[in-house]
Design a protein that fits this description.
This protein has 331 residues and is of the alpha/beta class. Helices cover 37% and strands 19% of the residues. The chain is built from 13 helices and 13 strands.
């Protein structure tokens, strides 16, 4: 899949990355942000502060020419639908969302309000955009989990756990981009190439996480898990990591949230670029740019995080080849 730099993407649209400060007597521009974690979570507070700061650098200052509204999307599908409906009714100038599930919920209600996604995975397969180069709709943004990364997940998992012979792919079909099909197709092809068996491990609710993983573990030795990018498993990261460890299954995750809560390892695109891109695209749209012409951007850097204590508890050693490539090793 072709990746382009942020500046190159902007140049192709005929716009510049940094415009002049805005001095306006018109109504405050309304940028609404919907986030899948409680607003008082430290990581959420840090991300919001980044967006505020980078918008201010571009001339958009809260209380002067900008109103930045924030909303928690809730912990269930019903709450997400309700939050999305309330947000759309406010008729903001831009809606910023943090995940694929939120993007889908908002786009189900509006195809006119510009929508910027911060971590949407597989935006084409999910139907959010027509193409990465020219979205041709009302949504664009940033993605840090390209489906081609599936090959890397298999490679890394079998490198740290070489006895792995069968792979369980854990996801919630309701909340995973494209119901998981894009990632599953890539994983099946990769698994067949290295002679691994592979099958889905669907989890539909929090209560079912333990049972689904236990069932897979009970099917024989040599099991390992790949967790797909999924707002559901992200929300229950600690529960997923604990269940994997309890059934002694090496697992690779799409976000370092899992490794910080006891998971074995994670590999994902870096998110450092996301806040800057979201602020830049917000600035351009507020100044009149067409969201349909702003290309989707992917991570240009990647993070491998390994939990050494989790590896030891599984009887695994972290090979030097992984230590050298790791962004962080936690314990």
């Amino acid at each position: 899949m072709r990746r382009r730099s942020f500046l190159a993407g902007l140049a192709s649209c005929g716009v510049t990355a940094f415009a002049q400060p805005v001095h306006s007597t018109e109504r405050l521009k309304h940028v609404a942000v919907m986030i899948s974690l409680p607003l008082d979570t430290p990581i959420v507070q840090a991300r919001l502060q980044e967006i505020r700061q980078r918008l201010a650098e571009r001339g958009w200052v809260e209380g002067q020419n900008l109103r930045l509204g924030t909303r928690f999307s809730g912990s269930s599908e019903a709450e997400l639908s309700r939050a999305a409906a309330e947000l759309v009714r406010e008729n903001p100038d831009i809606i910023i969302v943090s995940s694929s599930a939120e993007t889908a919920a908002v786009l189900a209600l509006t195809r006119t309000t510009p929508v910027l996604f911060g971590t949407a995975s597989d935006p084409v397969g999910s139907g959010f955009v027509r193409s990465l180069e020219r979205p041709e709709g009302n949504a664009t943004g940033f993605s840090n989990n390209d489906p081609v990364m599936a090959d890397k997940w298999l490679e890394l998992l079998t490198e740290i756990a070489p006895e792995t012979r069968r792979i369980g792919v854990v996801f919630n079909p309701r909340t995973t981009p494209a119901a998981g099909e894009t990632y599953l197709a890539r994983l099946r092809a990769g698994a067949a190439h290295v002679r691994l068996s592979l099958g889905p491990v669907a989890v539909m609710d929090a209560v079912g996480i333990e049972g689904a993983i236990a069932d897979f573990a009970g099917q024989g030795s040599g099991g390992g898990l790949v967790f797909l990018p999924d707002s559901f498993t992200f929300r229950y990261a600690a529960q997923c990591a604990k269940a994997s460890a309890r059934h002694r299954l090496p697992a690779i995750y799409p976000f370092d949230t899992f490794t910080r809560q006891g998971g074995l390892m994670s590999y994902t695109g870096g998110r450092d670029e996301a806040s800057d891109l979201i602020a830049s695209y917000s600035d351009l749209i507020l100044r009149g740019a067409n969201v349909a012409e702003l290309p989707v951007q992917f991570s240009r850097s990647f993070e491998l995080v390994i939990n050494e204590m989790a590896a030891a508890s599984l009887g695994l050693s972290v090979p030097l080849s992984l230590r050298i490539r790791a962004t962080r090793i936690v314990s």
